[in-house]
Amino acid sequence: MQLVFLGTGGYHPNQRRHTACLLLPQLGVMLDAGTGMFRAAQYLQGPALDIFLSHAHLDHVVGLTYLFDLLEVHPLERVTVHAEADKLQAVQQHLFAAALFPKMPPYRFHSIQQHTALPGGGVLRHFPLEHPGGVLGYRLDWPGRSMAYVTDTLASPDAPYLAHIKGVDLLVHECYFSDRHKDWAIKTGHSWTSAVARLAADAAVKRLLLTHINPLDDGDDPVDLASARAIFPATDIAEDGMTLEF
């Protein structure tokens, strides 16, 4: 099964990264719809797309406005956006307000269910994360494989969501700041390198991919990868365009 990172940055795009958007192209499943969504058409394989939003902050939803171009390149019979009811309402009333966007794209909006069946015999579950406005994390399980997606939250040692990510094959977790900016992470409700690595170790995951990187740092090592690997060796930094088999 493939996982494609269409956007791995936070807040706003830079020369290296677009904002949060992950795609399972063979299944037609997308996690968040940041500015990286414009890349989806070249990867999609089927006639439908299900988009699961973690929350409605602009860097995670603005890509929803790109659907018309996506449909021009890869026509879809159905596109459904799944999220908490208040987040869907915000998207429909504000992102697609007539004064901001000329025409509502052909989305279906569906209030998130605790268990959502996925193609290939899988299931998606969600769990709450601590962040202003409220955020959902996701765990996706199939026979013989699993992954979790956690963004926009503090990776504190006593994070309640640790129980929900236990033992996954792949943990995709935000790491907006390196340790030297830990104070800013706490102030803004984001994670820093060593905290994420310790959480991955405590959760006994098999592999950790760091994403939602600070756009002010577009270098090769924005989060001090060595410090993460000293705690949890199976750690890498996600990059736009990266494709994983898991």
From the alpha carbons, calculate the radius of gyration and give it in angstroms: 17 Å
What is the CATH architecture assignment? 4-Layer Sandwich
N to C succession of SSEs: EEEEHHEHEEEEEHEHHEHEE
* Proportion of residues in β-strands: 25-35%
- What's the CATH topology label? Metallo-beta-lactamase, Chain A
The CATH top-level class label: Alpha Beta
Strand line-up of the largest beta sheet: 6-5-4-3-2-1-14
Unreliable residue runs: none
Overall average residue pLDDT? 97
Looking at CATH, the homologous superfamily is: Ribonuclease Z/Hydroxyacylglutathione hydrolase-like
- For the record, the count of structural domains works out to 1
CA-based shape: globular
Number of helices: 7
* Distance between the amino and carboxyl termini: 6 Å
Class by alpha and beta content: alpha/beta
Helix content: 10-25%
Tell me about the largest β-sheet.
Answer: 7 strands, mixed
Gist of the model:
This protein has 246 residues and is α/β, with parallel strands linked by helices. It has helices spanning 58-61, 67-73, 85-95, 162-165, 182-188, 193-202, 225-231, and strands at residues 2-7, 21-24, 29-31, 48-52, 78-83, 108-111, 115-118, 122-129, 135-142, 145-150, 170-174, 208-211, 235-237, 243-245.
Could you characterize the architecture of this molecule?
The structure is a single chain. With 246 residues, the protein is α/β, with parallel strands linked by helices. It has a single domain (2-245), classed as Metallo-beta-lactamase, Chain A. The chain is built from seven helices and 14 strands. The relative contact order is 0.16. The mean pLDDT is 97.
